From TrEMBL:
Database matches in Pfam families: MIP
Locations listed in the record: Cell membrane
Lineage, top ranks: Bacteria, Pseudomonadati, Pseudomonadota, Alphaproteobacteria, Rhodobacterales
Domain of life: Bacteria
Keyword DNA repair on entry: no
Family: Belongs to the MIP/aquaporin (TC 1.A.8) family.
Membrane topology: Multi-pass membrane protein
Predominant location category: membrane
The organism of origin for this protein: Pseudogemmobacter faecipullorum
InterPro entries for this protein: Aquaporin-like, Aquaporin_transptr, MIP, MIP_CS
Transmembrane stretches, start-end: 38-60, 81-103, 132-153, 160-186, 206-226
Protein name, as recorded: MIP family channel protein
UniProt keyword list: Cell membrane, Membrane, Transmembrane, Transmembrane helix, Transport
Length: 232
C-alpha cells in the first residue's frame, strides 16, 4: 500500500506541477507565452506521462474524483480510498510548494496574488467571468465524462496500451473548452494545492472544486457499476 501511495504522490505532483507550472511560468498570453492551448496540452501530456510512468503501480488515479468513481465502480477497495486521497492531496501541495519556490526566485517577485499558482475560480474577477452555476455545471459534467472515459478505457476488453493516451487527450480537450470558465479542475487535489497557497477567493471557492468533481466522479462510477457504461 505504501508503494501505491508513493506512486500517487509522485503522479499527482507531475500533473499539478507541469499543468499549473505551464499556466504561471510559461504564460497564458499566446503572443509571449504558450497560450491556453499550450496550457491545455501541458495538463494532458503530464497525465499521459504519469499514467505510463506509475500506472502499473497504483492505477495512476491522481485525482480523488477518479478514486471515488473507481471505488463505486468496484475497482478500488474501500480501505484504500482514503489513503489514495491523502496521497493525491500531498502530491498537489508538494508540487505547489516547489512551484512557489521557483516563482519566488524571479526578479521583481512581489508575492502571491489572487488565484495564484493556477488556482481555480469563478466570478467576475476570474478569467471569463462565469458565474457559480456555470462553474458547478461545467465541473460536474466534465468530471463525469472524464471519469467515464477513464473507467471505459481501463476496463477488461479495452484496447491494450492506449489508456494513458486516451485519458491525457480527454483532459487536454476538457481544458481547451473550459479554462476560461473555471481554469478547469475536474480534480479536487489539483484545486486544493494552489488554493492553499493563494488563500482569499481561491480558498473560499474551493468547495465548488471539491463538491462538483466528486459528484461527477461518483455518478460515473455508479453508472459503470450498473453496467450502463460498461462493455461486459
Amino acid at each position: 500500500m505504501s508503494k501505491k501511495c508513493m506512486a500517487e504522490v509522485i503522479g499527482t505532483f507531475i500533473l499539478v506541477f507541469f499543468g499549473c507550472g505551464a499556466a504561471v511560468i510559461a504564460g497564458a498570453d499566446g503572443t509571449t507565452g504558450i497560450g491556453l492551448t499550450g496550457i491545455s496540452f501541458a495538463f494532458g501530456l503530464s497525465i499521459i506521462a504519469a499514467a505510463y510512468g506509475i500506472g502499473a503501480i497504483s492505477g495512476a488515479h491522481l485525482n480523488p474524483a477518479v478514486s471515488l468513481g473507481a471505488l463505486l465502480a468496484g475497482r478500488l477497495p474501500a480501505g484504500e480510498f482514503a489513503a489514495y486521497v491523502i496521497a493525491q492531496l500531498t502530491g498537489a501541495v508538494l508540487a505547489c510548494l516547489v512551484l512557489w519556490l521557483i516563482l519566488s526566485g524571479q526578479q521583481g517577485y512581489s508575492g502571491l496574488g489572487a488565484y495564484a499558482l493556477g488556482a481555480n475560480g469563478y466570478g467576475p474577477a476570474y478569467l471569463g467571468g462565469y458565474n457559480l452555476t456555470s462553474a458547478l455545471v461545467f465541473e460536474f459534467v466534465m468530471t463525469f465524462l472524464f471519469v467515464t472515459v477513464i473507467l471505459g478505457v481501463t476496463q477488461s476488453g479495452a484496447p491494450v496500451g492506449f489508456a494513458g493516451l486516451a485519458i491525457g487527450l480527454t483532459l487536454a480537450g476538457i481544458h481547451l473548452v473550459g479554462i476560461k470558465v473555471t481554469g478547469v479542475s475536474v480534480n479536487p487535489a489539483r484545486s486544493f494545492g494552489p488554493a492553499l497557497f493563494a488563500g482569499g477567493a481561491a480558498l473560499s471557492q474551493l468547495w465548488v472544486f471539491i463538491l462538483a468533481p466528486l459528484a461527477g466522479g461518483a455518478l460515473a462510477g455508479i453508472l459503470h457499476a450498473a453496467g450502463i457504461t460498461r462493455a461486459e
